[in-house]
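Quick question, first post here. What does this chain look like in 3D?
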Amino acid sequence: MAEVRLTGEQARRIAVRAQLLDSPRPTQLVEVVQQLTLLQLDPTAAVAPSADLVAWSRLGSTYEPAQLKRALEQDRSLVELNALIRPMEDLPLYLADADDIPRYPDSRAWFEGNARFRHDILARLEAEGPLQSKDVPDTSDVPWPSTGWTNNRNVTQMLEFLVARGEVAIAGRQGRQRIWDLASRVYPSDLPRVTPAEAKRLRDARRLRALGIARATGTAMPGEPPFVGEAGVAAVVDGVAGEWRVDPDQLERIEDELHGRTALLSPFDRLSHDRKRALELFDFDYTLEMYKPAAQRRWGYFALPVLHGDRLVGKVDSKVDRKAKVLRVEAIHEDVRFTRAVTAGVMAELEDLAAWLGVGLDGPGLPSRS
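> Answer (accepted):
Ran it through. Tokens below.
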């Protein structure tokens, strides 16, 4: 197929539609994760855990975090793997080359030097599982070497490798603590086997379908490689240098009007988390500033990007004050001057977010209601 030429508006609309941020909203959590391919787990919950915030931004207040827990621990329609939540049906794509794990020579030597330890863990899980890591004895022969926090954390490191190899699975969580069990008791028995080459091809295609438009090689995301390879169709975007890849299904809708809406996004949202792509396609400058000293922050500790239609138009500096039971809005940063429609949309989303969180809404950043 010949290279496709897109306007900036068309490129943005493709990205918004692919991320399910147009109208009408989707209605089913599992269908959302199937399209997005992942929800990122992150312990930061200044407003809400990122996985829940991403789900809320698509589904609205019909979404409840209990739905995610049920899908992971009861229905088994979703699975936790490498700090990401993925559709269970995609699991074979991420276990296709599991026999090669660990890949690095030093890690491989540690793993092979602890063959007895590995056997002990599997036997313990078979007899007593599911278990937290604290309930698994450390019988390692070779300590895990690290200059960081994982030094000598042998049980956790072995469990991580066994999950990556498809021998152990994360069966659920108790608070933030993972619960481990044999993969044979968590994963369906009829999952298909996929060759590594076919798995890569399908992962690239699924990643592009979730993004709509991406560079063949771009910015690495947590848990995701920085490319979509030869997936999709080659394209150029007016006013942006270089070549892009576009999901062919999105090209079939290229002339359709976008039914846009206003959305507040997690800082980890895939629409804007690739900062270079956000700048090139949306002219949106953003940095997650939670790791910066307060005096150096421009937009706030956990500022939420604001989408309106096919534009990223600002950031909301907000945080839940759990003691006061309020969503406190410190500032609303306008990248472009907000129209009345944008302001109304942002306020409606903030009110919905506060109601979903079960708190009030307050703060010096809220616009005057006079």
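The chain has a mean pLDDT of 94.
The longest strand covers residues 311-321.
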